[in-house]
Specification:
Layout (H helix, E strand, L loop, with lengths): L19 H24 L4 H21 L10 H21 L3 H29 L1
């Protein structure tokens, strides 16, 4: 840019735009983390086991998700590995709601997580095929 230019340089492309599926995916993940913390708080006697599981269960889920399932995962896996990690994390949330005595919440969450996971998996597979 020269001193006489007034227009800023064009910004580099940042990737694909955020879609409604991305927002629903983020909401599902936030609810999953809240659910694991809620389970840790209610399922264990207070104070120490409760506090440890209230912090530890969501933290463990975040670490596993970041290592294997996030878009910039540290350990690259194929579609089957990503699906297994997602099933394990989301399944743990459904089981936590079952253990807390709320089967309706467990079932509703399982259905929403299944639909969102399938849609995201299909989108990822189609975008991976387009890059080849």
């Amino acid at each position: 840019m020269t001193p006489t230019d007034t227009a800023p340089p064009p910004s580099p492309a940042r990737g694909r735009p955020v879609t409604a599926l991305d927002v629903l995916r983020a909401a599902t993940l936030v609810f999953a983390l809240f659910s694991l913390a809620f389970w840790g708080y209610l399922a264990w006697p207070f104070p120490w086991p409760s506090i440890v599981f209230m912090v530890g269960a969501p933290l463990f889920a975040v670490v596993v998700w970041a290592l294997f399932r996030s878009p910039r995962a540290l350990v690259q896996t194929d579609a089957v590995g990503k699906a297994l990690v997602e099933i394990a994390v989301m399944g743990a949330v459904a089981v936590a709601w079952l253990q807390l005595g709320h089967p309706a919440v467990a079932g509703a969450f399982a259905v929403v997580a299944l639909v969102v996971g399938v849609l995201v998996g299909r989108r990822d597979a189609s975008s991976a095929g387009a890059r080849r």
